């Protein structure tokens, strides 16, 4: 089966964001809108101070802001949001704010335009201002000089408006003079241009040339991208207001999470970080030490402004969260945009609203704020800005000087102002200044600006003459030389018509810096010739460069018709790098690529560590002859690939219904193997291949009580696949409890796959004979995960009588089905004599409960309840990136949702579902039902992540029905079994998440995802295995050691109390845990241990000396760290380990949060 209904149930556990938060009707404490009181709540970073730049009545409800070259702040505002009320006219505005006396406070406010509908973005330029106005991009202009727009031009139209907070937004001007802007996941745009209709069918970034009206898709994906900025070298970064990966590195043709029809995506730089809105790069020598060069963005849910430091890693970057710039506990403080200004200050647009949910909240909720909004100004303490000529007033010479400013604001505005001057005059001064410059930074900025301006002016001869020096730019005193080259390659890539273009690309693809090669790959992909693709294939130098590898995969994917014939004739004609060869093969749609890859693997040209990729390729596309070759390899004595190959054969049989030609005798040998994993895989193959000769052996395995339950269960499933009366009768006797009582639940599941009606009858009878709800999920799961199961169960229940506890558990399962089945729920309630549950609290009851939560709830007890295995909250949600991935990260949920709505989301979960997390129901042609969150969907297949974290891949051709779930997967009575005091504590914990002064996820890189040794019922055997083989055996790859995933607490510590004890191991009682590191750049990697008492640590299988800080020399790739804890020696103190940087080391690593 693709899916077990248990996943349905796991989904339900605390889907606070998947089911999201219902309307904030019960918000009882709306903060005083007095700006002074709001400002009093601000905690600003050391060395800074904050003042109010503008507030109502000068400004209200800002959505974006941008400066013009005169130093005026233009702001789009929307008091209409989220919609126009019936009978009312939209009257949103464009405001212009000025600080005429330069005291850091706006003293002039002008309504430049009104009568707009939901303007979400603004950018001054071309003698007026560009405004994103619902479905249109407008250009407004003041022709008579009265400060108000009197000309409106529709520049582009046809942008989607299905969701008003997903319409186009975030207008930013790139260094090349083009305008870049975003749209979000539920927006489908079809825009008519002089060059044809341009389409973007979900989230992504547009790139628009205002001179030629060329509109192109720059990147695709993200849920709600609402922050965009360029670094000094033209590289792009974005934030996502509804994602959870922090900063995102975005380059041409990037495909990210949620992109429409995506076949592969790249992830962000900071998984597990808050959702962010707005983005700015801080620059300037006037800033406090350490702040220039940081990226700042708004955690609008958590009422704070975060900061990040980026460091280069291969072709991309690594992000590290640093100190918050601004923190507040004022619930209405909602920072949504951030910019530096001409005075060196940092300006923060404050949407000011106690309510931030969109579709989750009634559009007419009376607590929505439509009147207030502020712009805050953050500056260094006692800062006195220098008097600098504004770009609009400057001569060309002054503007050229400003291109070298330490402040990005002046560099960007000066470049834009220069674009309005005569090119010949600009180049005369700019080129002379570049020659005379004695500062590498200045020289680089001047030369790049000359190239960018040439591109903006569309001067091919100038571009062609300037490129050679920049493509080979190498100043020993300039550590960013490669970034200059990369910027030049991007411009060069757009001009394949130049005579020297291919020579330029050859030089770029051989550059030692991966980012230069990344830009060359983009260019070569668009060239699309065989020569260009062969050249691109030489780009990879090292492993683990995910951005370069993605772009290379994308290149091969889009150009398969160009290179396939050459590759099949001689793979080395494309590349001799085994990693690249695998990338080529994985990118191909053709199954013909399997043959050369399999040969290279058998010849050991492709190294053994790449075996899993080779086998996956064969499982997906190989024919029976290739499977036959794999089978032969697996049968070689002591073959290291046997288990992997057998898994491949299972996958091929399940997904593609193909098999090698294997004799019954050879298959039976697997069933009799002394290796338990081989036996299990042999059982699976016996059933999938329908080997009738295996029937008696499968029965023997199932009947033998000394065999592991996993093996016996697999044998039953395989017997069901063999089919026939013998299997039916045998499984029915087990399902009815007539034999092998310990396997009754497994018998029902196996029987359901061959005779659903009999399985339903056995299940109803079994549950009628028990008072325990412990097995309800396991028994009903295989029935309800089929198309006909719910209806058959409804009919079978007509005369049934179940214990109330059993019926209650069954109701939870039934109410969690992706499509409502009220008849089934009613039948279960009747069988258990259950009264209908009260769905909602009265206003008085809610008020009483909220008061109890805030006054008596205990955060620490609540966290313990949240972590209970039976509740399984962590199966669906992460905190700080650690936990389930089917729902959004809950790191800041408490800061964005009032307490009463946290309660209501548990009691009435089906009112709203958060964007990006709609569950889907898929019914296959075999009648199997799957449910989960789609993470990738294209024309060929859909990838659905279930609540266990498993990704089910379903070919489109196997789908009979696919539709969004109409109800929340969270059962309405989920908390029904909690005592009132437990519910109080649970909600108190959730309400504290993300709140300043309460449970804020630390910026430190603590280990948050662990695997712990958990033998369960097999304790003695596992204990003996470690005791006999030594403590270090726990650090090996022994597949029989049962590791299960768990997560650190919010403070980053791993509690030891739940971990299993291994007794008498070298005369000690020990507990074992492990975590994974991904080393991106080889070197010394640091770990900091809060208290090393009683700990022993192995990195991979090598023990290291345990000290408070450890530095380990590691190569690139994945590394496992195993910890043995003599926990009594450390008085059961939790383990907390932090990934840290090592002084003087180039090593870079990231913690793996699965």
TrEMBL record:
Keyword tags: Heme, Iron, Metal-binding, Signal
Every Cytochrome c domain range: 857-994
A matching Pfam family:
DUF7133
Where does the secretion signal sit in this chain?
A: 1-23
GO terms (molecular function) for this protein are: electron transfer activity; heme binding; metal ion binding
Key word Cytoplasm present = no
* The keyword Heme is assigned to this record: yes
What is the official name of this protein in its record?
Answer: Cytochrome c
Originating species: Rubinisphaera italica
